[in-house]
Amino acid sequence: MDYVVSTLSNLVKQTCFMNLSWGNLLMIFVALFFLYLAVKKEYEPLLLVPISFGMLLVNMYPPIMEDGGLLHYFYLLDEWSILPSLIFMGVGAMTDFGPLIANPKSFLLGAAAQFGIFAAYLIAILMGFGDKAAAAISIIGGADGPTSIFLAGKLGQTEYMGPIAVAAYSYMSLVPIIQPPIMKLFTTKEEREIKMEQLRPVSKLERILFPVIVTIVVVAILPSTAPLVGMLMLGNLFKESGVVKQLTHTASNALMYIVVILLGTSVGATTSAEAFLKLTTLKIVALGLIAFCIGTAAGVLFGKLMCKVTHGKVNPLIGSAGVSAVPMAARVSQKVGSEADPTNFLLMHAMGPNVAGVIGTAVAAGVFMAIFNV
User: What would the pLDDT profile of 154-180 be if each residue is shown by its tens digit?
Assistant: First the structure.
């Protein structure tokens, strides 16, 4: 009888019910809320589903993230910058740089939206973060999860990598909620109704040369960006060359989705209650939101400037797409523009600043790595 009682007692002690803290319960609730946003609202479900499930797993069974646990090994691929670089290859294979090539001025809008990153860097230092930590946190403003993870790893800020990654991916998913009020605040209805001229056709030669030239120029100036920019442009070269369709298909489908599963689940698994429910985490999340809002506003305001200079030929809304949440930010520009005028079609125009933002965020990360001699 004692054996039976002892056995049952051991089983009960090992259940989640005996080991969960209030913090774990709170994080489980957050995980379920993220899962609701992904499934019901369809906010970036490819990201939020694995992130929310990783969050759920680690708060029900923390050892899954400890040395020897399954998700610990997934997370090492984040720290080693392998998964972020592979994500960039997949993004490149899926992305059409045609709108950016057809309208090179889009580079300026993509650059303007990076202002939020450097503004948040200064604010983070004022809030007491070290210079490297401030740089790693500020990159959240680009709404680029892989770059945030990449820079945090390169700068040795692994203790902040979890909150940084979750904040970055959360803001990527919440672009349709965060950006529209800012876009409407800084534009008039007349500006939102502006229709832009159709983009010129882009030749195949231009499409092939673009990833090669960008790689040479950017990597020559900032060699540390080679893993991100190089993989982004390699993926795009697969797509535009037209001679390696199998590689294009693999990079943009099977490989991309495998990497998303590993990266998303491991990012979610960094949010154990013990590691995540801290004042520092709240500061990081707040700074990320500030950076993202400033970046969006800067893009829109620079769009207004371009609108004035071109005598009304540029719709300022496309400036908000300068953050690198591809293609969600461009879709939001389209949505807000069509609300002002249902016949307005801004998507392709917004894709220019959007893909420029991907390059711009990688360059911003390279600038920080150069500053800190990484």
Answer: 998 888 888 888 888 878 778 888 999
Read off the pLDDT of each residue in 186-203 and give the average, rounded to a whole number. Answer: 93
AA letter at 132:
K
Q: Are 285 and 164 in contact (CB under 8 A)?
A: no
Find the distance separating the first CA and the last CA of the chain, reported in whole Å: 64
* Helical (H) or strand (E) element with 38: helix 22-39
Q: Do residues 78 and 153 make contact, with C-beta atoms less than 8 angstroms apart?
A: yes
Rounded to two decimals, the pTM is 0.89
**Alpha-carbon distances of 19 from 25, 47, 65, 269, rounded to whole Å:** 11, 29, 16, 17
In one-letter notation, the amino acid at residue 170 is: S
**Overall size of the chain counted in residues:** 374
pLDDT value of residue 14: 66
Cα three-residue angle 264-266-271, rounded to 5 degrees: 100
- What are the helix and strand counts (H, E) for the chain? 21, 0
Q: Rounded to whole angstroms, how far apart are CA atoms 240 and 199? A: 19
The three-class DSSP label of residue 202 is coil
Q: What is the DSSP letter of 230?
A: I
User: 53 to each of 43, 63, 181, 265, how far by Cα in Å?
Assistant: 15, 15, 30, 7
The count of C-alpha atoms lying within 13 angstroms of the C-alpha of 346, restricted to the half-sphere facing its C-beta, is 33
Q: Summarize pLDDT for 57-113 with one digit per residue, the tens.
A: 999 988 899 888 899 999 999 888 899 999 999 999 999 999 999 999 999 999 999
Q: Which pair of tokens denotes residue 118?
A: 């450097």
From residue 321, alpha-carbon distances to 23, 61, 160, 249, 327 in Å are 36, 39, 27, 26, 9
Host H or E run for residue 352: helix 347-371
Distances (CA, A) of 369 to 116, 309, 328: 18, 35, 28
Q: What phi-psi label fits residue 341: left (phi over 0), alpha (psi between -120 and 50 degrees) or beta?
A: beta
